[in-house]
Model the fold of this input.
Amino acid sequence: MTDVDVPESHPRYESLLTRHRIEAGVEKGITSKQGLIAQGRGEAYDYLLGERTLGSADQAERAAAAHLLLADHPVLSVNGNVAALVPGEMVELADATGADIEVNLFNRTQERMERIADHLREHGAEDVKGLTADGRIPGLDHERAKVDADGIGDADVVLVPLEDGDRAEALAEMGKTELVVDLNPLSRSAQTATVPIVDNIIRAVPNVTAHARDLQDASEADLRDIVAAFDREAALDAAEDAIRRGDLD
Ligand code: ATP
Ligand code: MG
Done:
């Protein structure tokens, strides 16, 4: 995955590496062709954000870590883009927070589900949920509603990176605390999230893990304070403002 032929000094190194990973994901049968388009949309926003983690995004990442640590049953949802871009990083986040990992696809096929689960296992995941599909998210059509009853179905806190707006809304309606990673602060997924993380998933996931490790010994009261202090509207506004100003310093 890292044997990409781009010199690190290239000004678009990170972006080109990311594209390469998505392309490799498509070739491996874990990422859909639609995933290429989603990545292109994300890149455009990242460019306007200056390809950096805003202070407001860092706060969102800390709040997300606190939510995961406070949860009774946290679950990290993985789709084809997430699996291609940050498989090992998701496994590390699961380890740091005691979360389950569940494969959850917009365009669900049994073959792609299994390939993604295998890919995650190759990156150290022990138990990968999503293949049982004995639970449903109310309000969505059959294929898109499938989840594991003892996974996302039972979760109180779910991290859903790069999620489609409909499903983000349906999960929020189930009363779940929803942590979303999405570079577009105007997308419905970001707008419905309890914690919208407007940052590239490549930077976001390792940073949530770093915060979770930092907060490992924090008291429940301290974690609750971090959660309460996070202002989702302010975070969305800060991201939108950075994009509109287009100040890349
Ligand atoms: P809506 O949420 O308004 O319904 P959508 O679901 O139609 O929008 P998609 O293109 O399906 O939008 O979803 C992809 C989302 O993921 C986009 O908002 C895009 O900005 C975001 N995205 C893509 N790649 C990344 C990435 N690497 N990191 C973070 N976000 C990303
Ligand atoms: Mg979306």
In short: The chain has a mean pLDDT of 94. The domain at 55-245 is CATH 3.40.50.12640 (Rossmann fold). The chain is about 55% helix and 10% strand.
